[in-house]
Amino acid sequence: MLYKSSLKNKQKIKEDNLRHIAIIMDGNGRWAEKRGKIRTLGHKEGFKTARKIIKFAVENNIEILTLYVFSRENWRRPKLEIKALMKLFFFALKNEIKNLNKYNIRLKVIGDITFFSEKLQNYISKVEKKTLNNTGLILNIAANYSGRWDITQGVKKIVKAVQKELLDINQIEEQNFSQYLSTSELLPVDLVIRTGGEKRISNFFLWQIAYSELYFTDILWPDFNPLDFQHAIDYFITRERRFGGI
Questions:
Q1: Catalytic residue positions?
Q2: pLDDT given for residue 14 in this prediction
Q3: Residue-wise pLDDT tens digits, 213-239
Q4: Residue 241 pLDDT > 90, yes or no?
Q5: Alpha-carbon distance values, 217 to 89, 106, 198, 205, 231 (Å)
Q6: SS3 for 192?
Q7: What is the pLDDT of residues 5-47, one digit of tens each?
Q8: Interior angle at CA 214, CA 240 and CA 185, nearest 5
Q9: Whole-number Å distance between alpha carbons of 189 and 235
Q10: Can you point out the beta strands (E) in the chain?
Q11: Which residues are Mg(2+)-binding (predicted)?
């Protein structure tokens, strides 16, 4: 990653309270197929795009960037494609750790990582610990994640707390339910971007995006560039967020 800071948009973004952006990175496989290539090459190009988008987020002082890289439903894909994705994930962790620290980025991985190999789990833990004290962008990677899983595991935590008499059932409210989700340490999501032309959430942040602005684009993820990212931000800036009020 080459995070050379231009900071040309940071003041406007700050004024409009755009603090947490989440992206559903869709279209890698279709991008490759349109070019007569194997789908795994699309994922490699998608990784290059992710680096550019992270660079943009750093330049513009975005506080949190969540990238939806692998859903629980993605295990239904061909085994060779899954194997290639796991290798790419490990490659990214191994090769980007120096840049994460250099540019003050904290890495956080959410999702049920117990499905991954022990080697990958250990490296995720290693990179999280190595970047724990960084105070710049929080790069939140959703891997083997789903919104329904997140809510379900949150309910399990609440049940255990009630059983141990650490929590009274009458204390469970919307405001504190979020504390039991995998995103408990994060700010609410302000803007969700989905590339690839589909106009659905696909079991992503079901609880966390109740009042998020949603931006859909037909651009396939490998073709998504910083200018496209800026267009999504410009859209957000035009929105009037009332949160149920007038």
A1: 26, 74
A2: 56
A3: 999 999 999 999 999 999 999 999 999
A4: no
A5: 25, 28, 8, 18, 10
A6: strand
A7: 344 556 556 556 899 999 999 999 999 999 999 999 999 999 9
A8: 95
A9: 15
A10: 20-24, 64-71, 106-110, 138-145, 191-194, 213-216
A11: 26, 213
Does 231 count as an annotated binding residue? no
Percent of the chain with pLDDT over 70: 92
Give percent helix, percent strand, percent coil of the chain, each to the nearest 5: 50, 15, 35
106 is in an annotated binding site: no
**Annotation-wise, does 105 bind a ligand?**
no
CB 95 within 8 A of CB 53: no
Q: Is 72 one of the annotated binding-site residues? A: yes
CATH 3.30.70.100 fits 22-151+191-238, yes or no: no
Q: 213 by DSSP, 3-state: which?
A: strand
End-to-end CA distance of the chain: 43
Q: Which two tokens stand for residue 215?
A: 């931006």
Checking if the pLDDT of 98 tops 60, the result is yes
Binding site annotation covers 240? no
